[in-house]
Structure formats: structure tokens, C-alpha cells
Amino acid sequence: MTEGLSLPIPPPDTIDRSIETPLRSLIYSLLWLARTVRPDIYYHVTYLAQFCHQPTVEALTAAKRILHYAYSTRDYTLAMAIDPAAPQLTAFCDSDHAGDTATRNSVSGYCLYFHGMLIDWWSKKQKSCTALHSTEAEHVAMSEACTSAPAIYNTLTEFFPSAEPITINVDNSAVQTLVTQRALSSKLKHIAVRYHAVRNWWQGPLRKFTPVWIPTDDNQSDIFTKALPITKHGVPIIDKFTARLLDIKDRRVKLVEKLRAAEAQQLHAQQQQLQ
């Protein structure tokens, strides 16, 4: 597959209860797939899940197209291999701004890497607040990311007591300034206290997080906040997003070759012993 799959999402203008059961069944199956091994379809599936209680033919068609996309790229999978040179824990967080045209809630996206291996990801709507501008939306996304990562960080410290702080990558420099400095702009004083807890996590004695600014094109959590255009979705962007994406067929061939080489080496050793 060389191109992304176009996935237009129309509004739920007509409701068809006869397709409610098939739509729910398909969405639940896709949710399991997206949460376990296919992060590239996570946003799209969670978006379509909103139509389960108001099923439409358009929503079912879109779900089938996601299934077709997942099936056509079934030979690609996340590789469970670590890079010792990469940081222990690296997180990416991002947010759109008022992406939901009905409620004007923003969508947060997050992914976490362990030594370059993707281990956690999610996409969720910011239902607790309606961000007035992009900086607030990004700040809420970082706060939500910082509430998800500590569980993995605490588990890591059980094995590595000197675990490094988690690097939180964000593409909004104002959010980085908001977290690392005490000064607070008058335009941001309305942000709830719960979202400022990320300051204590960075400035506290444990210092579990280190916020870092990165360019938008390098933010790998962008795929969890919006439907990307065709030119940005597909195998090339998935390859960049997952960092390690292997072809199952190639892996099988290499495994067979490795087994045959091991058998030949063992046979040769046995022949030498007989001589």
C-alpha cells in the first residue's frame, strides 16, 4: 500500500436503527485492534464510536473502509524491539483546537515510547473543559499525558531505581513556558488548577517529567488528534510514527533462513563429532 485511504466523515443526518448492531459489532472489533496493535487507526475508530447510538449508513461505510485499510496493511506490525541508545521513556502529546463542531471540545493525543518502542497511546476528547485557545488545549493535553505516564514510570523504577525523567515532547512553545516558569499570563488564569499539577511534577523533588519543544512535523502524536490528509497518512507516515514497522513476510523469510542455518550448523557439528 503506497497511498493513504480517504475517509470523509459526514454528519449524522439520517439514523438507521437496522444497522445499529452491525455497526456496534464492527466498531468494538476495530477498537480492540486499534488499542492493541494498530495505533494508526485509533483516532478514526474512536471518532466513529460516537455514532453507535445514532447509526447512519455513512458511519457504517466509513467503518468498513477502516476495516479495508487495516486488512490491506495486515502485513505491517509493530516490532517489539528496544533501542538501548534511545531514552528510557519518551512521550509525545498534542491537541487540536475546537475540532468537534457540535461541542467545540478539543481532542488530546498521546503516545509513549520505551527505548524507542511504542508501548502506550490514546486519543480522547477534552470533555472536562472547552479550551478558549490552542495553548490551553495543548496544556490540557500535556496534563492528561502526565497523568497516564506515571503508572508506567513507577513500574519502571521498580526495575531501574535510577530511572530517567520522562521526556514530554510538545509542539507548542507557550505550553513549555507555562510549565517551566512561574509567571502566568492573564489570558491563562482561567485554566483549572488540576491542569497546573503538571508544574509540580516537573518542579517537585521527584521530577518525573521534562517538557521539551519539538517542531509540529516531528510530533508523532499528531495522528491521534485529527484525520490527516492522504499525503500524510499511509505506510510512510506510519513508518515514521511507529519508529519500527516490520513486514511480517520478510520477517518470516528471515526466521526460516535463520532456522535453516542453525540446523545446518548443528548437522555439521554432529558430523565432525562422528569423525
TrEMBL record:
It comes from the Eukaryota. PANTHER family: GAG-POL-RELATED RETROTRANSPOSON, PEPTIDE SYNTHASE GLIP-LIKE, PUTATIVE (AFU_ORTHOLOGUE AFUA_3G12920)-RELATED. This is Polyprotein. The lineage of its organism: Eukaryota, Viridiplantae, Chlorophyta, Pyramimonadophyceae, Pyramimonadales.
